[in-house]
Design a protein that fits this description.
The complex is a heterodimer of chains A (116) and B (113). With 116 residues, chain A is mainly beta. Chain A contains no helices and twelve strands. In chain A, the strands form three sheets. In chain A, strands 2, 5, 6, 10, 11 and 12 form a six-stranded mixed sheet that branches. Chain A has a four-stranded antiparallel sheet with strand order 3-9-8-7, with no helix packed on it. Chain A is globular, with a radius of gyration of 14 Å. Chain A starts with a strand and ends with a strand. The mean pLDDT of chain A is 93. Chain B is mainly β. In chain B, 0% of the residues lie in helices and 49% in strands. In chain B, strands 2, 4, 5, 6, 9, 10 and 11 form a seven-stranded mixed sheet that branches. Chain B has a four-stranded antiparallel sheet with strand order 1-3-8-7, with no helix packed on it. Chain B is globular, with a radius of gyration of 13 Å. The model of chain B has no long low-confidence stretch (mean pLDDT 94). The chains are: A mainly beta (116), B mainly beta (113). Chains A and B meet through strand 6 and strand 10 of A and strand 4, strand 5 and strand 9 of B.
Amino acid sequence: AQTVTQSQPEMSVQEAETVTLSCTYDTSESDYYLFWYKQPPSRQMILVIRQEAYKQQNATENRFSVNFQKAAKSFSLKISDSQLGDAAMYFCAYRRPWGAGNMLTFGGGTRLMVKP
Amino acid sequence: NAGVTQTPKFRVLKTGQSMTLLCAQDMNHEYMYWYRQDPGMGLRLIHYSVGEGTTAKGEVPDGYNVSRLKKQNFLLGLESAAPSQTSVYFCASSYGTGYNEQFFGPGTRLTVL
């Protein structure tokens, strides 16, 4: 079974600075998908960014980018120019391309605090 | 579009009571999911559906049942609630598999006393 590990329960960043959240996963498959979701205090899960494992190029979405290291099974999220609205729980998730309804397997989350 | 909606938003049950959580989506998605989120943990899949009339077990299905009689609705039932089922429940839906985004509802906070 796949497992996803987020080793940083909490992180803190100064407004306008850059922060990197770590995620590692365990899988024996070569094709899969990786996601970062944001959960603000409202509880709503919001997709931040996603990556296909067969693509070597790292995904970027405005201030959010990933560092995908397939051999190391690492998928970190970099937030540039941090804003107060970035404060939230961030969850890394893994998804197989088939089977079990393509369920998402989530890590335990990292709480990001942004200091003004 | 309302996206994914969940009813109710909050509920308190006594041990042994039953209840049904309703999830509705207006995006014509085939796939629907029920997750639970416990403190300090990520979401875990309870049950899912790959289309109208289908259901399947996820990672933590015990104590729950589901039904998908209509494509837009996915119901989660607790027949005899237990304190271990105190959690926040999220419904999600997606158009397809793999890279397709799962859209989440706002969650239901359930407390079982």
